[in-house]
Write a structure and sequence with these properties.
single chain, mainly alpha, 5 helices, 2 strands, 71% helix
Length: 166
């Protein structure tokens, strides 16, 4: 039901963007943008209020507060991102849910690795200002992530799904 409400809202707004991009790309931008904002909000609250910029002791490892906030943000934004991708953006996918979830997780890990590598190269090797590097990197990772999710995590089956009669 929530996915249907979100889809109806996006369908109402889409005509403003229809000449700029296909509907699925708009859905991805809107859902991904909303989920990114949620993740940033959770990161900010955790970093500044929950962890109070202090190290977080997890028994086996001590994380700096910004890394612990990143983990907390991921733990919230991963399931909401999966829900939106599965039920709004790529709702036509015929893959089983558990396969989608595993593939979505893989695409997120690959995107995280790409993000880390790109930032390391841009900031540490090429001396880009970190904020500018992150903006450039976000564009690269979002495009890469969209293509991975569309063609890997939530792809449509090449063969039509048929129902069996018993």
């Amino acid at each position: 039901m929530l996915a249907r409400i979100i889809t109806q809202i996006l369908d109402w707004i889409y005509p403003l963007f229809g000449r700029l991009m296909p509907k699925q790309t708009f859905y991805y931008a809107a859902c991904g943008g909303g989920n990114t904002l949620l993740g940033l909000l959770i990161f900010f609250v955790c970093e500044n209020y929950v962890f109070d910029k202090q190290p977080v002791d997890l028994l086996l490892v001590v994380l700096k507060s910004h890394k612990a906030a990143m983990v907390a943000s991921f733990l919230f934004s991963f399931p909401t991102g999966f829900y939106l991708a599965k039920n709004v953006v790529f709702s036509g996918s015929t893959m089983r849910g558990r396969h989608q979830l595993f593939r979505y997780f893989v695409t997120n890990m690959v995107s995280l690795l790409l993000n880390y590598i790109n930032l390391t190269v841009m900031v540490d090797w090429l001396a880009f200002y970190p904020t500018i590097a992150q903006v450039i990197n976000t564009v690269i990772v979002v495009i890469f992530s969209y293509l991975l999710q569309k063609h890997f995590a939530f792809r449509k089956s090449k063969q039509p799904v048929t129902s069996k009669t018993v």
